[in-house]
Amino acid sequence: MKTILMLMFMLFCSNMIEAQTLESIMAGYHKAIGGKDKYPQQSAVIIKAQTQGGGGGEKRPITFTLKSPSSSRMDLVIQAGLNYTMAFDGKQAWSIQPWTGSMDPQPMNADDARDAGKTIMFIWNDIITEGNDGAKLSYEGKDEIEGSEVYKVLAKHSDGTEITYYLDIDSYLIIKWKTRSMNSGVIEESDMFLGEYQVIDGRTMPFAFESKMNGETMSSTYVKEYQFNASVDDAVFTMPKKQ
Amino acid sequence: MQNRLFIFGLLFLSQCIIAQAQFTSFTFGSIRAREIGPATSSGRITAIEAIRVPVPGSPSEKRLTIYVGSAAGGLWKSKDNGNSFKQIFNKVQQHSIGSIALDPLHQDSVLWVGTGECNVRNSVSIGGGLYKTTDGGETWKFLGLEKVERIAKVVLNPKNPDIALVAGLGALWGDSEDRGLYRTEDGGKTFTKVLYVNEKTGCSDVDIDPENPSICYASMWEFRRKAWSFASGGSGSGLYKSTDAGKTWTKLTKSMPEGDLGRIILTIAPSQPSTVYAMMESTSSGLYRSDDRGETWAKTSNAVSVTARPFYFAQLVVDPLNPERVYRPSFQLGTSNDGGKTFNGFNYGGGTHPDHHALWIDPENTQHLLLGTDGGVYRSYDRGVSWSMFRNLSVGQFYRISHDVEEPYNIFGGLQDNGSWMAPHRIPGGGAIQNRDWSPTGWGDGFAVLRDRVNKEIMYFESQGGSAVRRHVNSGETKPIAPFEEEGEKKLRFNWNTPMAQSVLNPKTLYIGSQYLHRSYDHGDTWTRLSPDLTTNDSTKYNPVNSGGVTRDVTSAENHCTIYSICESPIDQQIIWAGTDDGNIQVTTSGGKQWSNVALNLPSNIQKNTWISCVEASHFDKGTVFVTLDNHTRGDHQTYLLKSTDFGKTWKQFKSDSLRGYAHVIREDLVNRNVIFAGTEYGLFISIDGGNSWAQFKNDLPNVPVRDLAIHPQTHDLIIATHGRGVFIIDDITPIRNLAIKDLQSELLFLPVRPSEQSYATSFQEFSGTDEFSGSNPTDGARFAYFLKSRHMIGPMNIDILDPNSGEVISSIPASKRKGINLMSWNMSTKAPRVAISQNTGGGNYGYSVLPGTYTVRVRKNGQEYKGSITIHSAKRSIHTPQDRQVQNQVARRLWSMIDDLAYTAEQTTSLRDSLKLRMRTIIDDSEKKYLSEAVSHLDSLHTQMIAEKSTMFADSEDKLREKLAGIYGTINQYAGKPSAEQIKRIDNLDKDVQSLKNGLQTFYSTQFGRCNEIIQKSGKKPLNRLSRQEFDSVE
Predict the structure, then answer these.
(1) pTM of the entire structure?
(2) Is A204 within a domain?
(3) Touching A: B residues 884-913, CB under 8 Å
(4) How far apart are CA B268 and CA B216, in angstroms?
(5) Is the CB of residue B935 less than 8 Å from the CB of residue B1012?
């Protein structure tokens, strides 16, 4: 009898564990990443990393410069002396694509600009900002990602973009986010897997970002350094004049 | 305190249980199945719906969204007028589509799908209820009716689509009280059965008057299929009408055909709803027309195109704008333009696959038709006069599969109503396997296809009922070779899907099974009977002459009491196994002299006469055999997998909650006897512990019928014949066969893979658009695999490829971190050289290929180090000697160094030149200024020789040393053999140029560098820096 009672208590406990809400999941996430207050949105962050194609392509230095509310810049070293730059100053997105034979900056179309504006979510994702940017969050239940049990949190943005966050049920850290957005009249989906978390100055940060399509790794980005509270001039996000 | 300890103990225990890694579908990790088609022959289509949907962001423009339901390949959606299709039913564990209904008020998003095909032929699959999506197929909600098995039609009230009528045809192989017509008023939350006749009679069609939705029509059909017969018709069949929106029904009796009715297919003319057409099957089948909303009927035609095979052709369509234009998809697209009085002949609208099952007519342009057939979807823009095929739907229904041992090897298989086909398992040079890579090898319904193992110019294929044919590939001749009955005997009984098999030990041996086992040593020219009748020889079960019921239908599909599976032991030719469709498992250990029916020893829970769908003799032990039993023809859908280790005297049944679907095939691994593969009506299942536990393999392999499996003995690929989605391949099962249950607790464990081949085959340009099916090739990279007990989440994890001798890191690649087997790929290249900085890309910024050999893989994970290896072989078709490869590698390495050297020289030159230019500005003395200016000119002249200076997309337009080196580096890397004398001469010359530039720079250092710095330092500026090689190498 005692055993049965104990088992019932266990079941009760497990059911309590099961009964997750959006609030409890976000609380778990914030705790897991070291506390929400560790990510002040008024500061700028520089992320120095290396990126590599699937299968063993060259590792290329890449730097992300992010500044709230929505400015971002990515500089990818294609080869020594040649950088692919993509930036967004909150209004306009632009890029320099050296493989075209031109180092002139070019404005990006509205869909690409919107996607460029999402680069900042490397740090200030929807679960940290908790909808401050207008996104509506909802808990979508449990799921499984590559064999790991996860909680699903859906963020619906006012521009139609939907981002689903998959949080590991043990650690509450993000395993993956899936972005669905419209590009040229077609819905595009992309999967970003996060991993290799490490604690830096009290913050639990992902050090690996893998972009996957149909389960195959398309590219991987490995962070070498996070520079929080960096001093960043807004001018770096503004499209320069043509050379 | 004791209680608290107990709770903690329990909690700890439960955590331990949770932490134990189980053998599940996720164990297979990133090992994936690769789809190769074909879509050129496609497969049976059961339903088509389409709607014009506004383009997002541009609502005035519209694109045609098309939904296609297939017999056993799921539901597909195109959002681009049919240019491409995406499978949208994978998450729903059903693959057989009965009907599709678009919500009339939300046609862009709300869709109801009834599962279970209702063209109830012998090989038809089953469904599992009704599903609904409200987001265009992104997510699905199960609405119930799971036990109905087959849903013939879903119609929604045009004014209130929460009201729906669902025609539940029901079970094919047995009685069922779940069949009948169902109605919902709440969008599918609850259902009421509103029309039911008896357990033998299902609802085969239903329609709602679009003008007055209170008026509805439904047809009921009494039918039954058995393994040896089909019967359509009976007293249960009839046509019904409702005038209260489907709540109550009245049987229509006025002017109906006399006698028992069979299947009735009905449709309302959308533009004139008082007119209703019905194809009524009876002893005098025909098209009937009512112009008073079903009250009275008149027969208008008994054309064969109308009355053909009602059990198989179940659609009747009226033009949306013209009530007199009637289409009857059957063998061909029967078309009447006079209200059903006359129909076009069989030759009308040629070019499509015969046997039509689904038709959609564009309401905005009724010339525009979409037609679903036994061989895919076709589109016409001229009302059926001419057609184009959608070549992007791989929904082929294979029965049997085989392979040869060519390089690359070929796969052979026969498909339901689409003949026999072959294709290579990969395309040399990379790219994708496409429709054009598939070649037809036989006709009719296709089944076993074998390539002769002695003379590869000979192939064997079958069409239905054992019509075996020998094909001579080079001459193109074919010769029927099936054995005949002996004098005075009745015709031999061959199954619809007759087994044909070869011997592993004697490549000349060919077997075919009727009720007897036949063997030939001369390519089928003469046959020897190796057995008596191995079946039950029950004469009540092999008289299909009268099969069909109201409409006679005899095609060999109901042939019974036949051999269905043959397997000669791969280790003893005297041991031969035969399984029959009426439940016998026969074995001989004397090459056919004596036979024993060991099915008598099967466990008692298995019903007598259960169909033996596969026998597989062990590769390791003479007495061991595996069998699958399939009892779905008696309504039993359980998975029966069994093994005997004593020639069938005793049996062990494999049981697992993971198994699902009636079983078609079982294969024992060729290397590890504990690894077993099984195919069922719902997918592929694998055991790694001798059958004790099973897991479904899901990675890119949908829940579709797996009818046959073959393990290639050289590549270790598992070839999967699906009956609904064509052929899939799991490239290299070595990691699976080397994983044991105990390994599932390993933190990280390297698993062996087959050696990788290094291919230099070139791919050529091709721009084929997006409207053709495109399968995939195996990865070109060198593979290795490791198992992870759980996902790596915390801390660094990285992978280096090391030279096994020096330990030097050759390359580093991103680590896969998922739970289960992580299958990785390395591009077999070294790191790239640094290239001289330019405004242009290129310059040889990539590594060269390593030599074949064994390399060390090092995984570092949270401070732990794990080591495995990669073995690389040269391609089997390679024409080069190891010595030649060595030379190529040395030359590539030499060029790599030259490029890297040039980068160093260029960096020094550019840096010195630019620094000098900067410092010159503050020099006042003219002679000093002139000296520095000359130095700048000297450096500039070096720089000009090194690097293209104009920024362009095409760097080779300015042919400088950097670009020249890149060019020859590229050509050396694309060919694995010895470089030509011309190439070596070119490299020697370029080497001289590199040396010349280095010398030129050295001259600067020895003659001008010191004086320049004197001048600069005199002016108070910082002297020039001489960049050391070490400094250069340390820069990332």
Answers:
(1) 0.93
(2) yes
(3) 903
(4) 10
(5) yes
pLDDT digits 0-9 by tens, B783-818? 999 999 999 999 999 999 999 899 999 999 889 999
ipTM over 0.90: no
Name the minimum distance, in Å, from the CA of B928 to any CA of chain A: 32
Residue B229: phi and psi, rounded to 5, are -165, 165
Fold for the domain defined by B103-377: Methylamine Dehydrogenase; Chain H (2.130.10)
For chain A, how many structural domains are there in total? 1
Question: Rounded to an integer, what distance in angstroms lies between the CA atom of residue B627 and that of residue B643?
Answer: 6
Residue A106 lies in a domain: no
Pairing of strands B286-290, B298-301: antiparallel
Residue B852: name the closest of B806, B822, B885, B823 by CA.
Answer: B885
Residue A241 lies in a domain: no
Inspect the interface and report whether the beta carbons of B7 and A148 lie closer than 8 Å. Answer: no
| Residue A108 domain-assigned (yes or no) | no
CA distances from B917 to A81, B15, B636, B911, B1016 (A): 19, 70, 89, 10, 11
Ranges in chain B, pLDDT < 70: 1-20, 346-349, 544, 951-957, 1036
Tell me how close the Cα of A25 comes to any Cα of chain B, in angstroms: 18
Tally of residues, chain B: 1036
Cβ–Cβ below 8 Å for A56 and B843: no
Return the structure tokens found at B12.
């700890």
Of A56, A81, A82, the CB nearest to B813: A56
CATH architecture of B756-874: Sandwich (2.60)
Interface size, chain A vs chain B, as Cβ–Cβ contacts under 8 Å:
143
**CA separation for the pair B340, B306 (Å, rounded):** 9
B499 near B566, Cβ under 8 Å? yes
- Closest alpha carbon within chain B to A168: B793
Domain hosting residue A25, numbered range: 2-76+125-231
pLDDT in tens, B708-762: 999 999 999 999 999 999 999 999 999 999 999 999 999 999 999 999 999 988 8
Q: Which tokens hold the place of B663? A: 């079983």
CATH of the domain at A12: 2.50.20
